[in-house]
Design goal:
single chain; 251 residues; Rossmann fold; 6-stranded mixed sheet; 4-stranded antiparallel sheet; 10 helices; 10 strands; 35% helix
């Protein structure tokens, strides 16, 4: 294993019937980096992400996290190891306040079940840590607001707060900017920079300006294979990448 790597995939392949969605992919994510996974529609990004986060089992290949083979592990088990995924569609409890959402996540991290009927006294022990997490994502003034009443961008920030409550060492973000207005994009970009200071981040993202500003390294997929890899300056000038994006946007 690369001594600087936190997550590695070797020969990762996923077949659905006769269709090869991910084809012999090798990927190395360096510890402490922000690594972006991009590619035109149908490139296999979502399937690869599902393989890395164990929502799919590969047809062939291996995945190692912190030197440990996690290829056949379940999503909940790798979350306990510190590898946690945040979803493209905001996954918070809409009728709970921002603080209540974070408290539920903290309760789960401590090993307790999701006991919604627990007394306020029992759950209040998580108030301090919950407030700190909301402050980290810029939601202090929205602590007592129901999630359903938050703007889309702030819902995504709350989702990231609940993910951070699990204390991940590596965070996998699935299109964190999807559907956002520019103001929200700038807010979430700043948040990602902030939380990346002591974590590793792998993200699937379609917004190439976000990728350019945030990423240390980029892996480009096309037709299920790694097409190119490097920093944004390198991949944006790669003729193969430019060709792959014709008709699907510009790099």
């Amino acid at each position: 294993m690369n001594s600087g790597a936190i997550l590695e995939a070797a020969g990762l392949t996923m077949e659905f019937g006769g269709f090869v969605a991910v084809n012999n992919v090798n990927l190395t994510v360096e510890r402490g980096s922000i690594h972006a996974l991009i590619g035109p529609n149908g490139a296999g990004k979502t399937t690869l992400f599902n393989l890395l986060t164990k929502f799919l089992q590969p047809t062939r290949g291996a995945i190692r996290y912190q030197g440990r083979d996690i290829t056949r592990m379940q999503p909940a088990d790798i979350a306990r190891l510190g590898l946690v995924r945040s979803f493209q569609i905001s996954a918070v409890f809409p009728h709970m306040t921002a603080l209540e959402n974070v408290r539920i996540a903290l309760q789960r991290r401590r090993g307790d079940s999701f006991d919604f009927w627990r007394s306020e006294t029992v759950l209040s022990k998580f108030n301090g840590e919950g407030a700190a997490l909301l402050a980290d994502v810029g939601l202090t003034e929205f602590s007592d607001i129901r999630a359903s009443d938050l703007s889309y961008g702030r819902k995504r920030a709350l989702e990231i707060a609940t993910t951070l409550a699990l204390n991940p060492e590596m965070l996998l973000l699935d299109e964190p900017m999807a559907g956002m207005a520019q103001q929200d994009i700038e807010r979430i970009s700043a948040l990602i920079r902030r939380i990346a200071k002591n974590r590793t981040i792998l993200m699937v993202e379609h917004n190439l300006s976000v990728v350019a500003s945030l990423s240390n390294r980029i892996t480009v997929l096309a037709r299920g294979k790694v097409l190119a890899e490097g920093d944004y300056a390198a991949v944006s000038k790669d003729p193969r990448v430019i060709e792959a994006y014709i008709g699907a946007g510009h790099v």
